[in-house]
């Protein structure tokens, strides 16, 4: 009651920001807290050998991201026509039911089916950002979006640790149910406290005309956009390649003894922590020295940090290297988004960023698949070597097709 009274005294956009910050924070926890132990859960659903286990784990992660990559543009167009609040309710309620149901499955095929449906229900975070951007005063949109961004990142940091702890204290199945309850809370917060004055911005004829013109043809330098989208996919592929094997790799390094899910959760959260710390500072440095320098640094640093991860014999050394990977993410992802925004006309910025989201989901899908398949041939260390080689190839593509970045990297100050 007291919270309702306090919210009622605020302006509508302020109330939206507070409620959606809480909602995105809880959603961030809910989406990330099942990641560290999902492969261990897969191992409980059948008598699999090591090869089968890694493949099924990879598929379990990948199928969700494949669906997200396909349906994100569809949900985006529907949000433009029907409103963002409806998409918030669709996503939070659907995710709460499906994730809770994952705790009751007894076969890998049932789990894969539910993970497929989970992909259909994605979209809470981007729709929350879109709603905040449209409902807040224009002069405050930048600051409120920055504040909202901290919610999901913070939840994403806490989620793996909390999930690992809950799985250790209770069970993996109970953790799925608790996650579903968390997302149900997000649904009710969004239903009762989020306000949207929605009016469709496109008339039917204008919308039909827009569909006829290819967005790529309206870009001044489409080659750069394509290269950056591919880079987003490859970088995210590297980030997600460890996801299907992280708990299995940690279990191997710990020789099957100790709080494996807790440690795996901490290892999974470390890159996000360093990204949160490094991204603002690297962004400020990029404004002073040029985006090209930061982009090149991010690629080289990531390549150097990935190679030794498959050679470690200590879980703590793995944790240090994973923390370092977050620094490269803090350099790469914001810089790519900055260049994308500069290369996109205002009327196409939303479209280009939706492409970027889809390519990021594709990267998560490919990373999950490769992370599940490669250990069958080269053990766990092959995943990290493959990622380092992929980033090396990406680095060469950037140098070849974006020569305008090279002068900033090589140019000496006079």
UniProtKB/TrEMBL annotation:
InterPro entries membership: MFS (IPR011701), MFS_dom (IPR020846), MFS_trans_sf (IPR036259), Tet-R_TetA/multi-R_MdtG-like (IPR001958)
Residues passing through the membrane, by range: 56-75, 87-106, 112-132, 144-166, 172-194, 224-250, 256-279, 291-309, 384-405
Keyword Cell membrane: yes
GO MF, one example: transmembrane transporter activity
Domain Major facilitator superfamily (MFS) profile as annotated: residue spans: 16-406
Chief localization: membrane
A Pfam family the protein falls into: MFS_1
Bilayer topology: Multi-pass membrane protein
Keywords assigned by UniProt, alphabetized: Cell membrane, Membrane, Transmembrane, Transmembrane helix, Transport
GO cellular component terms attached to this protein's record: plasma membrane
Listed PANTHER family: MULTIDRUG RESISTANCE PROTEIN MDTG, PEPTIDE PERMEASE
Protein name (Swiss-Prot/TrEMBL): MFS family major facilitator transporter, multidrug cation symporter MdtG
Species this protein is from: Liquorilactobacillus hordei DSM 19519
């Amino acid at each position: 009651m007291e919270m309702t009274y306090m919210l009622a005294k605020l302006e509508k956009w302020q109330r939206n920001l507070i409620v959606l910050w809480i909602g995105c924070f809880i959603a961030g926890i809910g989406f990330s807290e099942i990641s560290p132990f999902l492969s261990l859960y897969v191992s409980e659903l059948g008598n699999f050998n090591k090869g089968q286990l890694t493949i099924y784990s990879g598929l379990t992660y990948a199928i969700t991201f494949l669906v997200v990559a396909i349906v994100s543009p569809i949900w985006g167009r529907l949000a433009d026509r029907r409103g963002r609040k409806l998409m918030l309710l669709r996503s939070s309620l659907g995710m709460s039911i499906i994730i809770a149901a994952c705790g009751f499955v007894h076969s890998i095929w049932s789990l894969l089916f539910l993970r497929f449906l989970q992909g259909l229900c994605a979209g809470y975070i981007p729709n929350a950002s879109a709603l905040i951007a449209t409902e807040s005063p224009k002069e405050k949109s930048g600051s409120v979006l920055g504040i909202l961004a901290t919610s999901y990142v913070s939840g994403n940091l806490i989620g793996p640790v909390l999930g690992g702890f809950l799985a250790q204290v209770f069970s993996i199945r109970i953790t799925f149910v608790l996650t579903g309850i968390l997302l149900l809370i997000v649904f009710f917060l969004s239903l009762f406290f989020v306000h949207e004055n929605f009016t469709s911005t496109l008339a039917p004829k204008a919308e039909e005309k827009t569909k006829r013109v290819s967005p790529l043809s309206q870009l001044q330098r489409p080659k750069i956009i394509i290269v950056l989208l591919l880079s987003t996919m490859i970088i995210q592929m590297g980030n997600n390649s460890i996801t299907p094997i992280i708990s299995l790799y940690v279990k191997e390094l710990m020789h099957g003894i100790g709080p494996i899910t807790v440690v795996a959760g901490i290892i999974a959260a470390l890159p996000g922590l360093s990204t949160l710390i490094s991204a603002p500072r690297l962004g400020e440095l990029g404004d002073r020295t040029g985006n090209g320098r930061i982009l090149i640094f991010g690629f080289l640093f990531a390549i150097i940090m990935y190679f030794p991860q498959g050679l470690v014999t200590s879980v703590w050394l793995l944790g240090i290297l994973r923390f370092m990977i977050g620094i490269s993410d803090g350099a790469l992802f914001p810089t790519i988004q900055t260049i994308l925004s500069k290369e996109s006309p205002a009327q196409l910025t939303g479209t280009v960023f939706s492409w970027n989201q889809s390519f990021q989901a594709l990267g998560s899908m490919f990373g999950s698949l490769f992370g599940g398949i490669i250990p069958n041939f080269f053990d766990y260390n092959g995943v990290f070597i493959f990622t380092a080689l992929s980033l090396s190839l990406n680095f060469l593509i950037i140098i070849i097709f974006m020569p305008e970045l090279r002068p900033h990297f090589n140019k000496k100050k006079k």
